[in-house]
Amino acid sequence: MASLPSIVVGNTIKLDRFKKHTPSSLSLENRNFNTKEFVKALDPFHLDFREALSLIQEGNTKVESSFYIPLLQECIEKNSVSDVQALHALVIKRGSYQDLFLMTFLVNVYAKCGTMESARKVFDNLPKRNVVTWTSLMSGYVHNSQPLLAITVFKEMMEVGGYPTNYTLGIVLNACSSLCDIELGKHIHGYIIKYGIEYDASIGNALCSFYSKCGSLDMALKAFCRTREKNVISWTAVISACGDNGHSAMGLDMFVEMLSEGVEPNEFTLTSVLSLCCIIQALGLGTQVHSLSIKLGYGTQIPVTNSIMYLYLKSGCISEAKKLFDGMNTISLVTWNAMIAGHAQMMDLGQDGLSTHFSGIEALKIFQRMKRSGMKPDLYTFSSVLTVCSNLVALEQGEQVHAQTIKTGFLSDVVVGTALVNMYNKCGSIGRASKAFIEMSTRTLISWTSMITAFAQHGLSQQALQLFEDMRFIGVRPNKITFVGVLSACSQAGMVDEALAYFNLMKNEYKINPVMDHFACLIDMFVRLGQIEQAFDFIKKMEFMPSEFIWSILIAGCRSHGKLELGFYAAEQLLDLKPKDTETYFLLLNMYLSASRWKDVSRVRKMMKDEKIGKLKDWSWISIRNKVFSFKPENRLNQEGEVAKLLEDLQEKARVLGYQLQANLEVVDEEEETTLLPAHHSEKLAVAFGLLNTSNGGQIWA
DNA sequence: CTAGGGTTAG
């Protein structure tokens, strides 16, 4: 402390001494000084926070109010409320509380430390306020997710005759976006026009993101176009607006336009653009943006690297992603989450069941590594991991994660809760799925939809429809996916009238245009009721080309109900859609064979020869105690004899129970001298193998 | 002193 008194001259801490050590631009009288540099300037005097504080506390010296600023700044960085309180007490004791500038900053500091009650108290005790004081309080409420209070403060300010600046209006617009208060937002837009500051960049940017968040891309684009001096932020805002409203490709076009206008992107722009590349799987462009990021010096920015890594994972470039991951200096929570979510996404990307399985296992391994590294999982982690567990049908792991969400308190999150419902449903436990649903404290449309679909999938149509009515009753608006669940519930139960009523409700009351899945439900229903003609009528009524799935439903119906002609037609249609599909060729061939239509048989055979259609590539796999066994029809097995015997036994039992094996399943192709195995035969092998190798009563999930 | 932009989820 020996060196400290030298800067205390008379009764005032002399700040002049600092100036000698600092650049000339750093004038302490200028209140726009860079606080960080100021704090650095304190270094030669070894004045760290504690020393400075005790210096003020010990003496009876009068302290220039600007002396507090860097100290308060440090409190924000350390997020230390108690230090703010100590300084606040000193400010009052030493009489600086009349300094409006300092007190406004104090409002800010309390707000940034998340203590709005204190910020409000400071504000309320002020004898005078200016726009900045009002604005600071409002900004505090917005950043502490109390947008409603921010708006109240704004109204108070307007009542006492305050005059908002562009900063103020920007903050209010922000509050409107998080409340989705379109009315007030438009009202504010009115002020903006009145004040003639519509063309101001800061206002234009705020308007752009306001309209974007309220779902009006048109208005967001207009706000952007009206902005006179567009800066990086304007471009970033409009690019994100495109992405947030489902126009990722347009966003990328805007990015190209931005570059041609000579505006240099920053790390925010780059991350935004990369996330758009991710959505539309534009790996090529993404790679270019990656090199651009490195060129501009943002190559090591964590958010930039995270989004590039996620893009690579989503595109299936595991080694590229891994390289980035291994090269990162700091691995943030988001990095881990992106890594896990990326592998979860790759499960959908997988070409076959096996690679899907491995992506899932890898995701769980990364989750373990993350926990070992000491990183605490959050709601993003848990929902991804639960999704992985559902895709893997890994009930045990799912249960463990469930326990962890309880312990960490993340179970109360809607998304985690919904993921849990899906996990239990996928693992075959509808009871626990509905228990998880009931225990949720809040539910989104997606939660309701998941539960409705789960009931429908388990054939519990009544429960599904009851839940749908409950959902409507409390005022949640269903979307098209909800209706897929509802229609499939009706379809399962063969409730034709209800199905048609809900179909009309969807179109007329909710103005939702039916998509392929809705028709598939209805067609499936008619087919299963044996009303093949009605099913075909519905297909003809659709405004779009029937999907492969729809034709296969119809084919199955035609086969079991002996509608051969329509069946042949449907199969030929399916072949049109999937010209090289082995399974479809065999299906059609089998159908003609069983109808003894030899002309068609040889025609299809010739087509198959021309298309070089070979053997069925159908194979299955099963995971037993974390080991994967794969089965191909032609494979030799260790337990071949046992498996064959078990299958025979099962077939015998099934026959006794009245199940008739479809005669046309096994067909011998004399020409090729290969046995055509029935579809999913390998699946039978896998299940039989599973039965032999799991303890009695163990369950096998398909 | 007050603003406007970003990564991970169902």
From TrEMBL:
PPR repeats lie at residues 130-164, 231-265, 444-478, 479-509. GO terms for biological process: RNA modification. Keywords: Repeat. InterPro entries: DYW_dom, E_motif, PPR_At4g14850-like_plant, PPR_rpt, TPR-like_helical_dom_sf. It comes from the Eukaryota. Pfam families: DYW_deaminase (PF14432), E_motif (PF20431), PPR (PF01535), PPR_2 (PF13041), PPR_3 (PF13812). Residues 662-700 form the DYW domain. PANTHER family: PENTATRICOPEPTIDE REPEAT-CONTAINING PROTEIN, TETRATRICOPEPTIDE REPEAT-LIKE SUPERFAMILY PROTEIN ISOFORM 1. NCBIfam families: PPR (TIGR00756). Belongs to the PPR family. PCMP-H subfamily. This is Pentatricopeptide repeat-containing protein. It comes from Forsythia ovata. The lineage of its organism: Eukaryota, Viridiplantae, Streptophyta, Embryophyta, Tracheophyta.
